User: Which sequence fits this backbone?
């Protein structure tokens, strides 16, 4: 299960990374509110078929969820403010710079995790966070004064997404697809309406399908992959995998936007690579207790936590999702701050 979670966490970073240079191009057609709205409506559309097929279960899970306030926070910070602040920042800086600044989301997620969400980092994790922070500072040297304002917008967006990441990781009563759909439609529609008001109803309709297609892959499928990874690895660790996104953004910006790769980009990229490496060297192990718990998320039966039985199930490694119950237990093993390990220690 860990290997699968690592793979989809990495893939979520690739899909999100290419969105930055592509969005830079689309800003020539749309204002920031419109573009943020269309991208996230596309994300919501991605999982409309899933909701239609499973509407009874999903609606029932949402109604019974004890984390409704968390879902509202996901919509506000992840669906409205985060993408809007990103588009505002992207207006006055290069796609390469923004791609690297977006890794401030790792820093924000780590600090918020320590302060608010019972997360933890060892010395390797803190080393990775420091490298990431220094990379973001270095990249500001290549931007003009207007680029500093962009860096501020991107930093605020990363704080919003850091909150979104942790709230997402603890909402275990609602499927990742439904969370993405709600965030996409509510957040996207809000920003789109504001954008249309500001433009007095003007919008290039011919560019709408392509923009929404970017949203489907880079914000829809990417977000769902991240949610699944976060629920199994914890928000901070899955964010590390997601942090490969800047490298893909830099590559696309170089190929399609012909942005130059200078010494600042190279140094910052090297520091980012070190940050990702050190942050992923987890050494956290101690005796801990699990209380009796009922929730829903993607899982298999090989991790020592999912011991419930299925009639006719022959492959314990098969991943599946349903409401299930955990009995109380106490054991020791290396673990991430995932859904089952958000304890104090």
Assistant:
């Amino acid at each position: 299960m860990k290997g699968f979670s690592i793979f989809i966490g990495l893939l979520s970073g690739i899909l999100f990374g290419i969105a930055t240079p592509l969005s830079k191009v689309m800003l020539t057609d749309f204002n920031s509110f419109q573009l943020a709205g269309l991208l996230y409506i596309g994300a919501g559309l991605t999982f409309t078929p899933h909701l239609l097929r499973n509407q009874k279960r999903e609606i029932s899970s949402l109604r019974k969820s004890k984390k409704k306030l968390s879902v509202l926070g996901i919509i506000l910070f992840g669906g409205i403010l985060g993408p809007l602040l990103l588009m505002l920042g992207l207006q006055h800086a290069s796609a390469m710079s923004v791609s690297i600044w977006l890794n401030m989301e790792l820093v924000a997620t780590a600090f918020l995790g320590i302060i608010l969400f019972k997360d933890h980092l060892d010395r390797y994790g803190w080393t990775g966070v420091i490298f990431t922070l220094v990379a973001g500072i270095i990249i500001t040297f290549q931007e003009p004064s207007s680029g500093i304002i962009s860096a501020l917008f991107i930093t605020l967006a990363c704080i919003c997404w850091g909150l979104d990441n942790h709230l997402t990781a603890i909402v275990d009563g609602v499927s990742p697809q439904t969370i993405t759909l709600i965030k996409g439609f509510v957040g996207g529609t809000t920003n789109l309406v504001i954008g249309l008001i500001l433009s007095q109803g003007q919008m290039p309709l011919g560019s709408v399908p392509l923009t929404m297609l970017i949203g489907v892959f880079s914000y829809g499928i990417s977000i769902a992959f991240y949610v699944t990874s976060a629920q199994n690895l914890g928000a901070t660790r899955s964010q590390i995998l997601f942090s490969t996104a800047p490298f893909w953004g830099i590559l696309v910006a170089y190929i399609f936007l012909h942005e130059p790769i200078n010494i600042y980009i190279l140094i910052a990229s090297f520091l980012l690579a070190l940050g990702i490496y050190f942050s992923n060297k987890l050494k956290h192990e101690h005796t801990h207790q699990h209380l009796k718990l009922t929730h829903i998320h993607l899982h298999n039966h090989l991790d020592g936590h999912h011991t419930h039985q299925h009639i006719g199930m022959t492959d314990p490694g098969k991943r599946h999702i349903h409401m299930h119950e955990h009995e109380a237990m106490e054991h020791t093993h290396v673990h991430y701050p995932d859904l089952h390990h958000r304890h104090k220690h």
Q: What stands out?
A: Residues 21 and 253 are 5 Å apart (CA to CA). Residues 341-345 have pLDDT under 50 and may be disordered. The chain has two domains: 2-285, 287-334. The first strand starts at residue 285 and ends at 290.
